[in-house]
Amino acid sequence: METQSQIYAYVRVSTREQNEDRQLQALQEFGLPDDHIFLDKLSGKDFNRPAYKRLLRRVKRGDLLLIKSIDRLGRNYQEILEQWRKLTKLRGVDIRVLDMPLLDTTLSKDLLGTFIADLVLQLLSFVAQNERETIRLRQAEGIEAAKLRGVRFGRPGKVDSEAFDSIYTQWLQGDLTIPEATRALSVSRSTFYRFARKRAYPYKHTI
Length: 207
Prior knowledge:
The protein contains eight helices and four strands. The chain is an alpha/beta fold and 207 residues long. Helices cover 50% and strands 10% of the residues. Strand 1 (7-13), helix 1 (21-26) and strand 2 (37-41) form a beta-alpha-beta unit.
């Protein structure tokens, strides 16, 4: 006797400071039970994530996996394509990306439908990764420009705001660890967190 197909969802935010509510709200209309929603608060640089691994053990052929946007699945172009292939081609799982209706393997099972979905996925993944690399380059250039202006990183209370914003953004997106971020700015962990709190909650630090 065949088991009934199930609907699952995968939600990911890059850090524990980020909020997953926007993704969860998009899933409300599907009425999923809590144990069908898998949430990771980790970087999307690779797929070594606890909830994602549990999801892979749970889904089976014919099930549907919901994702708010393709970058919630991952951030690496090649790994996104590989996971998509494993889920859809090898495991027989359907995927629906809510923010991109063309990325819905339930719409058409013929060769043309599969080709269109795969093509759109490859284009989106490439554009997303290229955009991230461009941002990293600009951030690195901003830090170098600050150094050329004579900014000395790490002086108490004198962290250059432009340089900090660049490093903070990379850390928030999961592209840098805390040790890497503090080394880049030559500050202590406590100083980095102090400025991070000011960056995240600016109105609490006015007056």
